[in-house]
Amino acid sequence: MKAIIVKAVNNHKELVISEYNTPLPNSNEILVKVHAAALNRADLLQREGKYPPPKGASPLLGLEIAGEVVEKGNESEEWKPGDKVFGLIPGGGYAEYAVIHKYMAMKIPSNLSYEEAAAIPEVFLTAYQSLVWLAEIKENNFVLIHAGGSGVGTAAIQIAKEKGGHIIVTSSKAKHKKCFDLGAEKAIDYKNESFSKVVLEYTHGKGADIIIDFIGAPYFNQNIECISESGRMVLLASLGGGKVEQFNLGTLLYKHVTIIGSTLRSRTLEYKIKLTKDFFNYAKEKFESRNLKPVVDKIFDWKDANEAHLYMEENKNTGKIVLRIS
Predict the structure, then answer these.
(1) Three-class SS state of 236
(2) Helix and strand numbers, DSSP H then E, in the chain
(3) C-alpha–C-alpha distance, residues 169 and 99, integer Å
(4) Domain 123-261, what architecture?
């Protein structure tokens, strides 16, 4: 088969389509002809050698796929050739074929394209895990979502809205309209405003019950300033840095704050299977009714994968970037 590999060219890591061995499904896996694969920031890090795949996973990039079943393991009777599926994999999505565990695959709703389906797994599973499993969102909770225009951000806005939350986002000004369209009630231009001040004003001093953060150290003090009593902060990444230089721990104590760190890729297969099943039971009809919808910013042909990565690096996207595999 053909697949995208990382090749060093003039001290730069280039993405090149090359021949690669077609994966073989084990008894509990299915082999999928990939029609679309979505980008994640983990792909950018892995390309640069900063985020190695889990033990036993494909070394190829790509965590989200959509396509059709072409072969199944002898214990994967749930699926048959021709079934249209999408799902989260630990690696190997930038290829003509990929394997996925039979319980990690989800049936593509009939109203979604391959490109739309590929834009769902990582971001919606992460958002659902963060809001529902970890932060235990309740109706009328104030929810602060950082990077509201990102893939996870756009998914989190929709899930928080469905759960009856009041949603505040931070994002660049250009992405505010899309955040409002998806259900945000307040948008903060992080480049020109103190988000903690705006959150406290908007919540009449109460603060955010839930904070979903990807930035890390640069936002930490402001997060704690504007989190409510007994608030929950879910830290999903540290894109801005991982070391907080000075912080008064007493604030955590008197506010009774819960801080939860989480990454999805390093979770066990059993955990991810349970999460996938719970999420899809919740979301399947909502995707069919368009109460939830994948947000696809731009589709690139996979021969233009380098341009797609650059587009993400420059933070131009609102929602997901997808590769069309041909």
Answers:
(1) coil
(2) 10, 15
(3) 36
(4) 3-Layer(aba) Sandwich (3.40)
218-229 pLDDT, tens digit each: 999 999 999 999
What angle in degrees, to the nearest 10, is found between the helix axes of 121-128 and 269-289?
Answer: 100
Contact 207, 166 (CB under 8 A): no
Amino acid code (one letter) for 303: K
- Burial of residue 294, with CB atoms counted within 10 A of its CB: 0-12 exposed, 13-18 middle, 19 or more buried: buried
- Mean pLDDT calculated for residue range 289-299: 97
- Calpha distance 174→181 (Å, rounded): 13
Residue 265, pLDDT > 90, answer no
- Tokens 């929602």 correspond to 319
Q: Return the CATH fold of 2-120+266-324.
A: Quinone Oxidoreductase; Chain A, domain 1 (3.90.180)
Write the DSSP string, 271-311. HHHHHHHHHHHHHHHHHHHTSS---EEEEEEGGGHHHHHHH
Domain ranges of the chain: 2-120+266-324, 123-261
Least Cα distance to 169 among 142, 134, 201 occurs for 142
Nearest one of 160, 156, 142 to 228, comparing CA atoms = 142
Helix 217-226 × helix 195-202 angle, to 10°: 20
For residue 253, what are the contacts with CB-CB under 8 A and spacing of at least 6? none
Q: What is the pLDDT of residues 53-102, one digit of tens each?
A: 988 899 999 999 999 999 999 999 999 999 999 999 999 999 999 999 99
Phi, psi of 86, deg, nearest 5: -145, 160
- What is this structure's pTM? 0.96
